[in-house]
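Hello,

I think I submitted the pyridoxal-5'-phosphate job twice by accident. Can you confirm which output corresponds to this input? Input:
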Amino acid sequence: MTGRRADREVAVKAKKVRTDLAWFGGEPAFADDIRVGTPNVPAKERYLELVGEAIDRRWLSNLGPLVQEFEGLTAERTLRRHNTATGNATAALQVAAKACGVTGEVIMPSFTFAATALAMSWIGLTPVFCDIDPETGTLDPLSVAKAVTPRTGGILGVHLWGNLCDLTGLDGVARDAGVPLLYDSAQAFGCRPLAPAPQGAAEVFSFHATKILNTFEGGLVATDDDEIHARVRSMHNFGFDDAMEVAGPGTNAKMSESSAAMGIASVECLDDTLSTYRSLHLRYRDGLDEVPGVTLIEAPAGQTHNHQYVVVRVDPGAAGLDRDRLFDILGAENIRTKKYFAPGCHRMPPYRDDAVHTPLDLPATEELAGRVLALPIGLSVAPDDVDLICDVIAAAVRHA
Ligand SMILES: Cc1ncc(COP(=O)(O)O)c(C=O)c1O
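Support: Only one job matched these inputs. Its output is below.
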């Protein structure tokens, strides 16, 4: 243990965080970086064993046995009939949109990671941004209903931070509009409704390195629809049919055997990973409970949750400082947080200058984008790291 780390542990145990935070002129109290998005590697030996087998087989891609096994294992978590592993979620979103017949304008939230919108633009679709529920951060069905026009060719909800959208509400709007409804579940592996609910024509998960379950890079298209599934299978593999002849449009969105090895090794111990995340989340809840103006965004009722993100909302009136200042103070203490997700996509260069993308005002999006901060969580974050982060936040608010 380094001297700095030992000091830090003493400080945490004594609940005595320096009052002269670096931001106010002192030295950073902590040498180690604690950051959002450090990859989980829960089963290195198992991964090496599986990837070694793939190398010995000389079967490295092209829907090999590891990809097939991984697809089977993910079905236990997605609870969908068909699961197709892909090279990443961005490509998976494109394949899913094509396979579901999305055309023209796609209604989606602005408050999401840019990939949701960029994936659609890249295949010639036009993102139309709608507002969100201010509590959960997910697409608001009323806002979507207002934005539907004859040009609408699909709706793409995002289960942001693992919070499931209003599944019934969006299903109703999509049915009334007569367009396919898809979900970007990139952040929602392990998040399922507790009661049966409509879950859209298809959904897409991400296994990017920073996700709770990672395959270095990876994704998944899940659907209950046999025809959509058949199109996804073909489209993600050059449009091939069973005879390996090109039978229709396609791209290369396949997952590699190496990625699937990481996925299998990680999914085998996912229950332990989920329980670590849950306990870190509870620790944040306790640690921030009495900090005025810094509120943990809680998981909605009625669903399982992966707690992949710990997001706080900073209310400057009560906290005495705003989100950006808290971000800087934590950064000065080597605690690397993320402004997930700011700015909204409608304010990004590809979209901000063309009114077609933003027909409505987005007050809830603007408000949340200015207030939220994602704090570090993951298998590399220790319980005492959480105590320390909470103590630094409390000290920052006290001294604001
Ligand atoms: C909401 C959302 N959509 C899409 C993506 C893209 O995923 P990938 O990096 O696997 O392409 C991400 C990844 O972070 C995401 O958070």
